[in-house]
Amino acid sequence: MDTPLSPGLYIVATPIGNLGDISHRAVTTLRGVAAVACEDTRVTGKLMQHIGLKQRLIRYDDHASDATRDHILSLAAAEPIALVSDAGTPLISDPGYRLVRAAREAGIAVTSIPGPSAAIVALTLAGLPSDRFLFGGFLPNKAKARADVLAELGAVRATLVFYETAPRLADALAAIAEVLPGREVSVARELTKKFEECRTGLPAELIAHYAAHPPKGEIVLLVAPPGDGPAAGLDPDALLVEALKTQKASQAAAEVARVTGLDRKTLYARALELK
User: Which residue in 28, 49, 95, 182 has the most C-beta neighbors within 10 A?
Assistant: First the structure.
C-alpha cells in the first residue's frame, strides 16, 4: 500500500510522447493526491485513464485567474494536490512558477517529482556542446523581436535551446542564418515517439530539407555556441581569395556562403574588395 501523502503541492513530470516514460513515483504520487491541476483537462484525462486513475482535474493554464490559483493553494494547504503540464516537466515554458512561488510564500510544502523534459532529451541527442546550455523558451513570433533575442543570446558561450512549432521552423532557421551565421543547428522533433528525428547542419541545409519534407509535431531547436560550428576556424577571406582564382565574385561568394553559413551579400561585398 502507498504511504499517504502529506498536504502540499506536488510538481509531477509526465511523458513528452511515449506514455511508457512515466515513472513509478509519478504514478504513485498522482494516485495519492486529492486533485490534479493541469493545462488541459482533456490531455491529462487521457494520461490518467492510461494509468487507471480518476482524480479530480482542475484547469490551470496561461489564462487562469488569481481566484483559480488561490483555490488550488487553499486545497494544497489541507491536502496533497498535483500540478502537471500537458507534457514534460511543469514550469518549463509554462505558467506554473506563479503557483509555486505563491505556495512557497504561503508556507505550503512543494515537492518536485522529476521526469521527462523535451529540452534535455533534445540536448542529449543533438551532439552539440552540453556542458553549458541556455534555455530560451519559444522565440518571438515577430521577425524583429526574434532577431533581437537571437542577437542577445547568441553572444553567450553556450548551446541555445528553444521550443518551436512546425509552421514557424523555416522562419526561425532563416533568422538564425542571418543573425548567427555559421552556427550549427539541430532540429529535434517527435521526441520519444515512433518518428523521432534529430537532424543537425547549417540553417540553409535544414531549410532545404524541411521545405522538401514538411515537419510535423513539437520541435526543439538547438544552436551551437559561438566558435563551435562547422565554420569555426575557417578564414572567409582565404576561402574567397582561393575561389576568386577560378570564379566570378558572385559565384565565389555563393560558394563560401554555402561552406561557412555566412551571409552571401556580405561575402560578395568582401569579394569585390579582394579582387
Answer: 182
Q: Where in the chain is the domain with CATH 3.40.1010.10?
A: 8-113
Per-residue pLDDT tens for 180-238? 988 999 999 999 999 999 999 999 899 999 999 999 988 999 999 987 655 556 778 88
Give the right CATH number for 8-113 from 2.160.10.10, 3.40.1010.10, 3.40.630.30, 3.40.50.670. Answer: 3.40.1010.10
Domain with residues 118-223, CATH architecture: 2-Layer Sandwich (3.30)
Distance CA 256, CA 253 (A): 5
